[in-house]
Specification:
By secondary structure, the chain is of the alpha/beta class. The protein has a single domain, classed as Metal-dependent hydrolases (TIM Barrel), CATH 3.20.20.140. The chain has nine helices and eight strands. An eight-stranded parallel beta sheet has the order 1-2-3-4-5-6-7-8. Helix 4 (115-132) links the parallel strand 4 and strand 5 (136-141). Helix 3 runs parallel beside helix 4 (115-132). The longest helix has 18 residues, at 115-132. It binds zinc ion. The site of zinc ion has 4 residues, from loops.
């Protein structure tokens, strides 16, 4: 199954942020993937967050049609960055199923790794993006100015661009990233009535050719899902709830949003060529 719509015209989705190697999916990953496909989520980019996890993501992506992955070190794991890890990432980016460098960036909200380690690891991975010719899959939390400065410096060498995944901020930050040339990934954060206001204000201003959608499963279960799931674990099958919220904010149909995101995402990650 592939293409923008199935025979009945139901929307097809690409989840650009599926953490399918998470422990939370250990027991029933095949069912999770089957449920996603049944819900029209026929393409997924599996997130790699450290060297071992990226290798695992690649193993999964190479075992199945419709799956690709990223290779990188998340800012939470930045202290684990080393020449050996970087060499592993270099090798991973040579594989056709690996379609982006990341998840990488800066997280000054939780500071699980010291900030100087985060900055070093991010710098190394921006250089890897330039070297590999792959797009960047970026994470930023409470670090907008430092992050934007580093990205701006690296930008001329990032030939395939970058997506700021799980973008949660408002119109001003969106404009900074869009001006630079970035794409933005929108998750179920947009469905959160408690903390999604800034993002909801930004969503209508994102050009369709820069907008991608993601679940960030198993995290960020959309709060609009009805009936409420029995568990808080998010799954890629819930993509349409993100798409619906985005469509409402943009005054577009859910089909339009799905189709546009499909085209944008397939082009950004060059999915027709690889995997
Ligand atoms: Zn993230």
């Amino acid at each position: 199954m592939d293409g923008e719509q199935d025979d009945a015209g139901a929307p097809r989705w690409i989840d650009i942020g599926a953490n399918l190697t998470s422990n939370q999916f250990k027991g029933d990953l095949n069912e999770v993937i089957a449920r996603a496909e049944a819900a029209g989520v026929t393409r997924m980019v599996v997130t790699g967050t450290d060297a071992a996890g990226s290798a695992e993501a690649l193993k999964l992506a190479s075992s199945m049609q419709g799956l690709w992955c990223t290779a990188g070190v998340h800012p939470h794991h930045a202290s684990g960055m080393s020449p050996a890890v970087l060499a592993e990432l270099d090798a991973l980016t040579a594989r056709p199923e690996v379609v982006a460098v990341g998840e990488c960036g800066l997280d000054f909200n939780r500071d699980y790794s010291p900030r100087e380690d985060q900055i070093t690891a991010f710098e190394r991975q921006l250089a890897l993006g330039a070297r590999s010719g792959l797009p960047m899959f970026l994470h930023q939390r409470d670090a907008h100015d430092v992050f934007l400065g580093m990205l701006r410096d690296a930008w001329p060498d990032l030939r395939a661009g970058a997506v700021v995944h799980c973008f949660t901020e408002g119109p001003r930050e969106a404009e900074d990233y869009l001006d630079l040339g970035c794409h933005l990934g929108v998750t179920g954060w947009v469905c959160d009535e408690r903390r999604g206001d800034a993002l909801r204000a930004a969503v209508p201003s994102i050009p369709g050719d820069r907008l991608m959608l993601e679940t960030d499963a198993p995290y960020l279960l959309p709060r609009t899902i009805e009936p409420r799931p029995a568990t808080r674990r998010n799954e890629p099958m819930h993509m349409a709830w993100v798409g619906r919220a985005v469509a409402e904010l943009r005054g577009e149909s859910i089909e339009e949003v799905a189709k546009r995101a499909w085209i944008t995402t397939s082009a950004f990650f060059d999915l027709e060529a690889s995997g």
